[in-house]
Amino acid sequence: MRKGATKDTWWLEFVFQGVRHRVRIGSGISRTVAREIAAVKRGPVLKGEAGIGGKKRKDILFEKAVDEFMKWVEANKKPRTVGFYRSCFHRLRESFKGLMLSQIHPFLVEKHKQKRIAAGHRVAVNRELAAVSAMFNRCLDWGKFEGINPVRKVERLDEPLSRLRFLSDEEEQRLLNQCQELLRSIVLLGIYAGLRIKAEALTLKKASVDLGRRRLTIEAA
């Protein structure tokens, strides 16, 4: 808010969706009154009711975006990749559940990163950032969300030169051929459900397995 060139005329200036706007508040009024009027005028702008910025941008709830993205992953990727994404989004839901994609800004993504680091999960951080970034990109491509991908502004962690390597299909089969039950089922959980063997697969309980809905409930941290 600032006073215009005309004496005692006050204007509200702001940037909305990258466009600068200037709204006349009034003239012959004090700074205090001008501030009160400006506060009233800001309300409709923030709610998208002032006719500023054109049509309302498309948005989607985080959980709905994850569901749509996972349908695409399941239809287009190998089971191992599906398990990888499921594991990532299990953790990401803890930070972004209940939020619209437009409400997830770089600071919130950074907070998720710092929380995971503090919990001792540095190795998983970049994987989770890659997963949520891929989801944002898909929603943008599909026209379900109009905005920016907040992960682009969050720095990834440095990784050692010896990067994590996934088993090839041939290596996977050779490993399974050498495993007897119960070990084979545990290894399959790690490969196809994306579970960490010690922290997640071995802590599963009977009540955590819903065969009818093909769902596992992971309780380990």
3D structure, described in words:
- It is a single chain.
- With 221 residues, the chain is mainly alpha-helical.
- The protein has three domains: 45 residues, no CATH class; 92 residues, DNA polymerase, domain 1 (Orthogonal Bundle), CATH 1.10.150.130; 48 residues, no CATH class.
- The protein has seven helices and five strands; from the N terminus they run βββαααααααββ.
- Strands 1-2-3 form a three-stranded antiparallel beta sheet. Strands 4-5 form a two-stranded antiparallel sheet.
- Strand 1 and strand 2 form a beta hairpin.
- The protein is elongated.
- It starts with a strand and ends in a 5-residue tail after the last strand.
Briefly say what this structure is.
By secondary structure, the chain is mainly α. It has helices at residues 31-46, 62-76, 79-96, 106-118, 122-142, 169-177, 183-192, and strands at residues 2-3, 9-16, 19-27, 209-210, 215-216. The model has no long low-confidence stretch (mean pLDDT 81).
